[in-house]
Each structure stands twice: as C-alpha cells, then as structure tokens.
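dumping this here before i forget
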Amino acid sequence: MLHFIWEYMQCEPFFVHVRAPASMAAMLSATLGDLVLTALAWLGTALVTGNPHWPLQRWTPRVWLSLLGLALALSVTVELHALAMDWWRYTARAPRLPATPVSLLPVLQLVLLFPLSFGLARALTLRLSATPKPQPLKGASSWNG
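structure:
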C-alpha cells in the first residue's frame, strides 16, 4: 500500500507517461514492479547477510548497508532503463539525483520504503506471534452440528 500511495502521489506532478496514460492500471503496474524490487531487496540482503530471516532480527550495519545499497542500485537501474525505453519522462519540477538524468523521487521511494516496509512487516509479525491463541473454555462442550 505504501508503494501505491507513493506512485499515485508522485505521478502527475513529476512524471509524463509517454506510451500509455497515467491511469489506475499504470499505478497498479508500477506498484507491482515496486513489490518485485522489494522482493529483490529481501533476497539480496539475505544473500549478503547469509540470513533469510534478517527482517525479523535486529538490523546490523551490514543489513542497513545492503538494503540501502540495493535501494539505490535498483532505483537508478530501473529509472535509467525506463528513460532509455522512453516509458516516461520527468517534468521540470522533478528533482534530479546529482550528476544523473534520474529523478530523486524514485530513489527516495526505495530508500525510505524498503526499510519502512520491512520494519512494519517485522512489527506485525512479532505482534501476531506474541498474541495468545484463544483457548476453549473449561467444561464447555463443542458442538459439531
């Protein structure tokens, strides 16, 4: 949901879609792409740390460097490819990453939302795993009617 909101909010003021209009379908497609990038960030960080459970544990400097490095590399790579394929262009209002033709916004999206997404998933997982399971009442009969 975080990626969808980001995509929706940044699209009109900062992007010009060249091949197709900036529709709801385009926002959903971009969000699915963001989810693939998020999965790649998880996999890459799991490989770098040797720990597929890294999101559920205390994040070491190695986790942070991997996650942020992948966010930077993936965002710049995707944006350069999209610009080369003429999928979109940036408006004059879109801030640029210094010394590149790439907008700063998609880079910030992954740099901010990767840790936030994994952090929220961790918090939710830990909360759900700590929630006591309901127990049947003593002496209550079950009805399988």
